[in-house]
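pls read this stuff:
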Amino acid sequence: MSITGIALVLFLTFHMAMNLVAIISADGYNLICEFLGANWYALVATAGLATLFVIHIVYAFWLTMQNRNARGSERYAVVEKPKTVEWASQNMLVLGLIVIVGLGLHLVNFWAKMQLPELMHNMGMNVDPQTLNYAADGVYHIQQTFANPVYVVLYLIWLGALWFHLTHGFWSSMQSLGWNNQVWLNRWKCISNIYSTVVVLCFAVVVIAFFVKSLMCCGTAC
């Protein structure tokens, strides 16, 4: 679970950097989207990423069940929360479920409208020409999604859950891999908080920037 978690952290770093390009240059972002279309290397990467998510999720449920079985009837006892235990640590499964739901929403809004149509077209399936024409236009899909305030709120909630999940998961992964001495554990906790905050804020900046832009363009030909 730690190894898959670290791999997903690296993917988030790439995805965050890619999204920031959309603010700087629409053409640059669309070039990246075109490069990451339904090419064989993009499909291999997508399959690998999906496998990482599945393994991470399965292990999360498995370890949670193991912990609950180990506690037995003690989990029903009312006890005071230890001061050294983080809120995120006690709610990782719930936070993970919110992240999964948000991921599903993200796939519907982007993957299903971008890579999937290209994949279906390459497989000889009938795809609406307009849908295929907009498949590589990532900025268009970002604009359409974050012009809707409902999606903006849902994405910000998702990012909030992701922040809590990352702040605990990052350093916990390092601890599981052996970086558990008192000096390095405290350092990893600090790095985890800084990294999680930077990544989530950058994602949120893209959401808010495109929402504000949609408000400014309302009634104009932006």
